[in-house]
Write a structure and sequence with these properties.
Number of helices: 21
Bound molecules: ligand 6R9
Protein name: Acetyl-coenzyme A synthetase
Structural class: alpha/beta
Oligomer: single chain
Pfam families: ACAS_N, AMP-binding, AMP-binding_C
Mean pLDDT: 90
Distance between the termini: 45 Å
GO molecular function: acetate-CoA ligase activity; AMP binding; ATP binding; propionate-CoA ligase activity
Enzyme class: ligase
Family: Belongs to the ATP-dependent AMP-binding enzyme family.
Strand order of the largest sheet: 12-11-8-6-7-14-15-24
Number of strands: 30
């Protein structure tokens, strides 16, 4: 069904020099491999697994599953019976079997251009082992959860891999989150240790992480006793300290042995939990397991970035998000890649920082978010002209739909028209790319994530759950699992089934809308639920509403999304105040009487779209006029 035919859309074809030594050099090769992955998944994934180390081989098939709630519980299993270790596969295997010990795993580049270091695979291995021994000494055992609240410093990678080595389940909380969010995630995961840093500079702004971490622990009072802080001493002078439970990173690491036998885990043992926004407001602990996640992140990394041993790869995401987990840590390391690990932000100390770093490390593959591209576009081409970007071969985007204007600018101004742009669609839940071009194989249409990755079978459903063939628009769902899909919502399997499998039995429901064009290309049209995407970060309207109504002055709040030039979407909040004369009282009352607020109408008011259609279900349609007259322009 996926034929690339003549089209009115402008197509961008892969450059010849890229095709020459590419893993998947043309569209027919992609199609052949794709067919194999669906027709014989057992053989397809077995071949991928052969690259890795298995302490014990699998006794079950490569993939087993049930996707139909009407039949029974939802489950996915990959390589049942096999024993392995993620950390061994991404470090020891390369150092011991591939002789990659001296190869650079990460070029760490600090927030300030004066701070940088290179970390080889063997150095990484010994730091990870040390950290693993520290955690063990603190009593952390296989299956225990470790919360990590660290900025983009090497210690973050050491800690996550140390967890993987001893079979502890890491739960990384993005170091920009508040103490409330951190507290909620620590409590839900029931973590026994929290690893944090004293502080971090993001641009000019100092964030006192240890202080926020202390606040989070105070709020979760039941936890305080078992918490110990391992801190990385950076440049914050006054760090709050409790010698009863806090320990310094440097002190415990110094005396810790450099050898640590990996814990041999079952293929389906948990690897990590990562929280993602849920439409009810409470974040969901997305759980990924060892073997499937290893196979899927390593294979997507290899093919989507057409990885070669001499590449220097840079993903600008933060490891606190899934993009960092899969495409800064696990995927690149599993391939023995050299990556840039960047602590800073795109505009510090100047707006050419990204381009400066690309020149400095001769980056060949560059992966960032549309929001960053749109931000940098604002400064024009001049900041780019100071730097040599000729090392670049492939560009990637992730996190939200990319508008064709930003795509074009990325392709022309950054890639000089030489580099394919891989627009990768995926989710925390999918573990890795699910709709994506392959850079040497797929003709590109700006704004389309193009076609499914190997093993992924997408389809589009209408409201009644009927499959739509050919050109169509509706709900994006997947008919079967691939190895990297999430296994459950941590400690809440029912929520997992309800969120992703209830609406359309037999399918995994992404929550995204999607259009398939006449050439078979997939175009993500945005969320179909009450979720919105601000600067590539997913949040739920309910979550924001809950936060607003916590304020003592607020009676009610409704939040909708509105397009934003740089952030993609922004929040547009409708708030009614208690005992306030400023909002006309009638207006507030009318809104209350609506019961379920008509979000569609609020959204249109936010966007100043006057043609509202049928308003007959509203208690008082005049409210709408009043809201229009009080509209204010967002910054
Ligand atoms: C990887 C990541 C997932 C949601 C997803 C969708 C949006 C991600 C996209 C995209 C259009 C792309 N999204 N990539 N939309 N084109 N290439 O971002 O995970 O934080 O869980 O967000 O992001 O709406 O459902 P996550």
């Amino acid at each position: 069904t996926m034929v690339v035919t003549e089209s009115q859309d402008k197509m961008y074809y892969p450059p010849d020099d890229l095709k020459r030594d590419a893993h998947v050099p043309d569209f027919n090769s992609y199609l052949a491999l794709y067919r194999k992955s669906l027709e014989n998944p057992e053989a397809f994934w077995k071949e991928v697994a052969d690259d890795f180390f298995w302490k014990k081989p699998a006794t079950g098939p490569m993939l087993q599953y049930n996707f139909d709630v009407t039949i029974g519980n939802i489950y996915v299993k990959c390589m049942e019976g096999a024993k392995t270790n993620m950390c061994y596969n991404v470090l020891d295997r390369l150092v011991r079997e591939r002789n990659l010990g001296e190869k650079v795993a990460y070029y760490w580049e600090g927030n300030s251009p004066d701070h940088h270091m290179a970390i080889t695979y063997s150095q990484l291995l010994s730091q990870v082992c040390r950290c693993a021994n520290v955690l063990k000494k603190m009593g952390v055992k296989k299956g225990d959860r470790v919360s990590i609240y660290l900025p983009m410093i090497p210690e973050l990678v050491y800690t996550m891999l140390a967890c993987a080595r001893i079979g502890a389940v890491h739960s990384i909380v993005f170091a920009g989150f508040s103490s409330e969010s951190l507290c909620e995630r620590i409590m839900d995961a029931q973590s026994s240790v929290l690893v944090t840093a004293d502080g971090v500079y993001r641009g000019e702004k100092l964030i006192n992480l240890k202080q926020i971490a202390d606040e989070a622990l105070e709020k979760s009072n039941i936890m305080t006793d078992f918490m110990s802080g391992i801190c990385s001493l950076f440049w914050c002078v006054q760090t709050p300290w409790d010698s009863e439970c806090d320990v310094w990173w440097e002190e415990v690491m110094r005396d810790s042995p450099e050898e640590c036998e990996p814990e041999w885990l079952d293929a389906e043992d948990p690897l990590f939990i990562l929280y993602t926004s849920g439409s009810t407001g409470k974040p969901k602990g997305v759980l990924h397991t060892v073997a499937g996640y290893l196979l899927y992140t390593s294979l997507t990394f290899k093919y989507v970035f057409d990885h070669h041993h001499d590449d220097v790869y840079w993903c600008t995401a933060d490891i606190g998000w899934i993009t960092g987990h899969s495409y800064i840590t696990y995927g690149p390391l599993a391939n023995g890649a050299t990556s840039v690990l960047f602590e800073g932000i795109p505009v510090h100390p100047h707006v050419g920082r990204f381009w400066e770093i690309i020149e400095k490390y001769k980056v060949t593959k560059f992966y960032t978010a549309p929001t960053a591209i749109r931000l940098l576009m604002k400064y024009g081409r001049e900041p780019l002209q100071k730097y040599d970007l000729s090392s670049l071969r492939i560009l990637g985007t992730v996190g939200e739909p990319i508008n064709p204007e930003a795509w074009q600018w990325y392709h022309e101004a950054v890639g000089k028209g030489r580099c394919p742009v891989v627009d990768t669609f995926w989710q925390t839940e999918t573990g890795g790319h699910v709709l994506t071009p392959l850079p040497a194989a797929t003709p590109l249409k700006p704004g389309s994530a193009t076609f499914p990755f190997f093993g992924v079978e997408p389809t589009i459903l209408n409201e009644h759950g009927e499959e739509l063939e050919g050109e169509a628009e509706g709900y994006l769902v997947f008919r079967r699992p691939w190895p990297g899909i999430m296994r459950t919502v941590y400690r809440n399997h029912e929520r997992f089934e309800n969120s992703y499998f209830k609406k359309f039995p037999g399918f995994y429901v992404t929550g995204d809308g999607c259009r398939r064009d006449k050439d078979g290309y997939y175009w993500i049209t945005g969320r179909t639920d009450d979720m919105l995407n601000v600067s590539g970060h997913l949040m739920s309207t309910a979550e924001v509403e809950a936060a607003l109504t916590e304020h003592p002055a607020v009676a009610e709040a409704a939040v909708v999304s509105r397009p934003h030039k740089v952030k993609g979407e922004c929040l547009y909040c409708f708030v009614s105040l208690k005992d306030s004369r400023e909002f006309t009282h009638t207006l507030v009352e009318e809104l209350k009487r609506l019961g379920k607020i008509m979000r569609r109408i609020l959204r249109q008011i936010a966007r100043n779209e006057k043609d509202l259609g049928d308003l007959s279900t509203l208690a008082d349609p005049k409210v709408v006029e009043e809201l229009f007259s009080q509209r204010c322009e967002a910054a």
